[in-house]
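> call design_seq(struct)
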């Protein structure tokens, strides 16, 4: 059975990564412009790195893979801290437990996404994935808060509540 993500009868599992660094004016996060060719609705929106979880792929491996593919960065830290214990059974299956920073779900729109968001740190040189993203850059909390308040429509809807949650939590601490 073949279908596009827009036609999926199920929610598509995804991860998102809030990549943090200390900037001159306080904390900054990595943002990029979405240019997903299959997704005319959200192409051009500001987003954080994200992507689909491959079949049986460990979510932590997905975070590392997607961030590298979309930004060129290597993940050096994932918070909450990663639990590497894998439970394997004689039934030829395996499972892990993981704890994301928060969860996300698009409850109305073109694609039914549900996902897990992780806080990360990374290293390397920024490089956009030419077919998925452009304009990869660091944004400070003041600029992000202003964008959330004045132009939320410019942000990828799935990540809009995530970024609002993150900014409010950061500014409260």
């Amino acid at each position: 059975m073949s279908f596009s993500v827009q036609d999926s009868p199920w929610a598509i599992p995804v991860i998102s990564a809030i990549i943090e660094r200390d900037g001159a004016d306080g904390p900054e996060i990595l943002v990029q412009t979405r240019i997903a060719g299959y997704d005319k609705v959200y192409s051009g929106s500001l987003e954080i790195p994200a992507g689909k979880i491959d079949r049986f792929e460990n979510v932590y491996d997905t975070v590392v893979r997607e961030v590298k593919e979309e930004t060129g960065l290597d993940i050096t830290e994932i918070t909450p801290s990663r639990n590497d214990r894998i439970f394997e059974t004689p039934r030829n299956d395996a499972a892990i437990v993981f704890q994301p920073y928060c969860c996300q779900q698009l409850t109305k729109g073109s694609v039914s996404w549900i996902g897990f968001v992780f806080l990360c740190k990374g290293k390397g040189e920024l490089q956009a994935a030419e077919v998925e993203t452009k304009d990869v850059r660091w944004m400070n909390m003041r600029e992000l808060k202003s964008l959330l308040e004045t132009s939320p429509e410019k942000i990828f809807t799935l990540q809009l509540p995530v970024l609002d949650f993150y900014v409010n939590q950061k500014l409260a601490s």
